[in-house]
Amino acid sequence: QVQLVESGGGLVQTGGSLRLSCAASGRTFSRYDMGWFRQAPGKEREFVAAISRSALSTDYADSVKGRFTISRDNAKNTVYLQMNSLKPEDTAVYYCAARSGNYHGLKYGYDYWGQGTQVTVSS
Q1: Exposed/middle/buried for 33, CB within 10 Å: 0-12, 13-18, 19+?
Q2: Which residue, among 58, 53, 101, 51, has the nearest Cα to 74 in the 3D structure?
Q3: Which pLDDT value is given to residue 26?
Q4: How far is 123 from 107, CA to CA, in rounded Å?
Q5: What pLDDT is recorded for position 27?
Q6: I need a labelling partner for 46 at 20 to 30 A (CA). Which of 35, 86, 113, 123 fits?
């Protein structure tokens, strides 16, 4: 079991930056792969970025490659999403997720979810 608490969302202009944080409970944080997903109104939830438990592997959606960076600090039980060069199409509720299972690939299989944090990018 892990509980996820997110922060850092807000309103920014096109081209601006935000850093999202996701704090996880417990002492087993390093055993979880971590991911970020987002959902815009009227759209399905989509994968954004993920990082393996070892931090040796990352993956990104094509739409955010080169703009977003995922990182983690296992000593602080926290995963981050640095978002640069933001676009209006990045507007969505962003969810932090944790995965306890063993998989090949980082885009699926997440077991635990945060409450979501709103990111709004104005044009």
Answers
A1: buried
A2: 53
A3: 77
A4: 29
A5: 78
A6: 123
Contact 24, 79 (CB under 8 A): yes
**Is residue 87 within 8 Å of residue 31, measured between CB atoms?**
no
The Cα–Cα gap between 35 and 48 comes to 8
d(CA 92, CA 39): 5
pLDDT tens per residue, range 76-95: 999 999 999 999 999 999 99
One DSSP character per residue, 13-24 reads: ETT--EEEEEEE
> What SS3 state is found at 100?
coil
How many angstroms separate the CA atoms of 101 and 122, rounded? 38
Q: Whose CA is closest to 5, among 33, 32, 24?
A: 24
Residue 5's Cβ-count burial label (10 Å; 0-12, 13-18, 19+) is middle
Name the stretches of the chain with pLDDT < 70: none
CA distances from 78 to 14, 16, 23, 53, 84 (A): 27, 23, 4, 12, 19
